[in-house]
Design brief:
single chain; 14 helices; alpha+beta; Beta-Lactamase
Length: about 375
Amino acid sequence: MTVSGDILDRIYEAALVPARWIEVLEHLADLSGSFGGLLVSARDHQPNRAVVTDRLKDVHELASSEGWLTRNNRAQLLLTLPTTQFHSDADHFTLEQMAQEAIYRDLLWPNGCGFAVATHIQVPNGDSLILSFERSKDEGPASREAVTALTELRPHIARSAMLASRFAFERVQSANQAFGMTGMPSAAITLQGRLVDGNELFLKRFEQSIVAGDRLRLPCPDAMRILDECLAAARAGMDGRPWASRSIAIPGTETTDAAVLHLVPVAGYARDIFTNAAFFIIITPLDATRLAPVELIQGLFDLTTMEARVARALATGIDIGGAAENFGISRETVRAHLKSIFAKTGFSRQTDLATAISLVRTID
């Protein structure tokens, strides 16, 4: 089986343009006589991101929704095999053994899959990439010639994947450095809250908050609770809503000023198969020199216009009764706004909220 130079060009182009991996998968599927392919990124045997050709999307979505990706004995076996070649599952499972495996019996066979040829690649960010091509049960396993052809291409695929992983990490680093140049501490974290990269300002502020496994632990319990809720919702596949972009208040300490933590999702092509960063954390330092306008408070804390007006009024020292009178609303309505403000900002005391609002920095 002859491998064309065109497929090599596509493989290396994908290192620079992650969107090209879908075309690479389609070409390699054709080369191996398969009807589809997928590229899955996993860490600690837990899959998290994938590129999937059209004919495999339905079965992959079903596998994800039913939890098959974490109980896939076929993939677990693959991760124990030599990384220098592609492997056919028919070399490791007989049909009788496949019939005893739930992944084949209850997922793959009923949905048109049957045999696969696959490999795994370790990339610099610590993830394992599983590259797999599927054939139907009726078609039988991939030919020895097809497995050999894929194995010949494997060094090129691995080299491209490693370059893509490095480029992805450098994009994250560049973003954090840019935030640092504007005076804002920032970092990138995974869905599990592990630190991927942080600029010097961030690492200096949170040097005591990075615990075992590079996991970020915020010193404020209320702020940490909200961050954990956001990450848990994202891991559960809620598309990040309503957690996709949150602003969380960070009270000041003896050594650090109060700040607002912005949790911003890494989405679209910015979060490709090689980027294990799921969110940027951007810290807006707070300044006591002037009181910010309503519009700035609203945008900074994700408040409604009335919530921002109430928050600003409280920061000036006006109590709930005074705010109610100023805005022509009842005390109960002010209290309802305050309850919503607490939920959004992470504060639990009115004094802490007033302090933070009074410290919001304005630009002359």
